[in-house]
Amino acid sequence: MDDADEIAAFHARCSDLMRALLQELARTPDQPRPFPAIEDALGWPRRRIASVLGGVFTVRTREFGGRRPYHFHDERQSASGRWELWVDPEQAEAIRAAGS
Questions:
Q1: I need a surface site. Which of 28, 33, 54, 100 has the fewest CB within 10 A?
Q2: What residues form DSSP beta bridges with 86?
Q3: What is the CATH number of the domain that holds 78?
Q4: Domain membership of residue 28 as a residue range
């Protein structure tokens, strides 16, 4: 997902936890981070991200054609060997604008 209006619409439709996750990812664009590092930055317990992503799945698939306002690497694709998330600079800008 790279359209700023679509990212803003996603931001408006998702939970407060998903918005917090997006804001944290926008803080460090173009830096893939494993789930535990992101959870630590947010002060969340382990596996919270998995729960948050699962909770937004229906909205993401039904309303946004499965598109994500973030990038995802599974353990086979990532440098850390763990699942990683990040946003690119354009997504980060749109997320910050949607949150203000």
A1: 100
A2: 71
A3: 1.10.10
A4: 4-99
Residues 25-45: what's their mean pLDDT? 98
Domain count across the chain: 1
- Report the alpha-carbon distance of residue 76 to residue 78 in Å, rounded: 6
Instruction: List pLDDT tens digits, range 42-57.
Output: 999 999 999 999 999 9
- Cα Dmax for the chain: 35
Tokens, residue 64: 């946004």
Sign of the four-CA dihedral 47, 45, 40, 96: positive
CA distance 68 to 79: 21
Distance, in Å, from the CA atom of 25 to the CA atom of 27, rounded to the nearest integer, reads 5
